[in-house]
Amino acid sequence: MLIRPSELKRRGILGMNRRNLDYIGRHNARHLFPLVDNKIKTKRLAREYGVPTPTLRHVIDTQHSIRDLGEQLRGLDGFAIKPAKGAGGKGIMVIRKVTDGLFVKGSGQTIDLEGLKRHCSNILAGLHSLAGSPDSVIIEDLIDPDPYFRDLSVEGVPDIRVIIFRGIPVMAMLRLSTHASDGKANLHQGAIGVGLDLATGHCVHAVQYSNRVLTHPDTGVTLDRIAIPDWENLLTLAASCHDLAGLGYLGADLVVDQTRGPLLLELNARPGLAIQVANGEGLLPRLQRVENLERVSPDAAERAGFAMTHFARQPARPTA
Asked: Measuring CA to CA, how many Å separate 310 from each of 12, 156, 277, 279, 285?
């Protein structure tokens, strides 16, 4: 369905050109981009600021080093292989277990050691990186999802994307992988986006392929009953990412581990706009409200509290 530009404006929808010029261009210094475009640098920064992330096991920087991959993986029952400069979930391979010398992926398919080496070689060559530049391979521990999240998704771990402007969270969504998305939390590949009320962490709207959905197509979970536990702490963690990265406009992807609690998965200096579709609401009014503030608190918890107070919504209860 086509929507007239005047209707998009009325709904407060932020378009890509305006995002790039008015928010990324004006509020994100270019020299800071490498800090979030490279997951290794992000992890180092997070460690300095006391922000928890998934445990890093190994980094591979050269093709020559791939020959030692078998030894590096010895003793690891499950792990994730990622490109340091990847975006949109590209190049991520999740290994759930090792059986009879074969590595079992999240989908249940298997791959041998030589297949993993080829995958790492492709990552180093820049196949999955931003602009195709040479890359590094990250091997890190798997997330053991909090029990609340375990049955919400298929073949992948649910994550929470939060858009932060001037240190204040302005919009959030829960991303649920599906069979169609091959375990990836990417809305363009068929994952479900669940818009979240910033006051409570409750579902307010949910979409798949930009169409409204009420239940998860694979698990049958009723989406409008979702309410994220420990929401205030999650939102405070998201707000603190502004202090870590120094970017005025950014996206933070968070996960909740059963043992370690909320973790920062990655940061994004150019977060996508599909979060508006997931929420059924435009970003512009919230961004403009924050932009008009004369003073923003230096305290992350206070900034999260501002978001909870000023950007609250009532969950949308669909009729039968």
From this structure: 16, 32, 20, 16, 11
> Token digits for 8?
């998009």
Q: Where are the alpha helices (DSSP H) in the chain?
A: 5-10, 16-18, 25-27, 33-37, 39-49, 69-73, 113-124, 147-150, 231-245, 275-279, 284-291, 300-310
- CA distances for 113 relative to 75, 106, 238, angstroms: 14, 16, 37
> 223-229 contacts: CB < 8 A, separation 24 or more?
223/192, 223/194, 224/315, 224/316, 224/317, 224/318, 226/152, 226/174, 226/194, 226/202, 227/200, 227/201, 227/202, 227/203, 228/160, 228/174, 228/196, 228/201, 228/202, 229/146, 229/148, 229/201, 229/256
**What angle do the packed helices 231-245 and 300-310 form, to 10 degrees?**
120
Q: What is the pLDDT of residue 58?
A: 96
Over its C-alpha atoms, the chain yields an Rg (Å, rounded) of: 20
Residue 203 sits at φ, ψ, to 5 deg, of: -65, 135
* pLDDT tens string 39-81: 999 999 999 999 999 999 999 999 999 999 999 999 898 999 9
The contacts of residue 17 (CB under 8 Å, 6+ apart) are: none
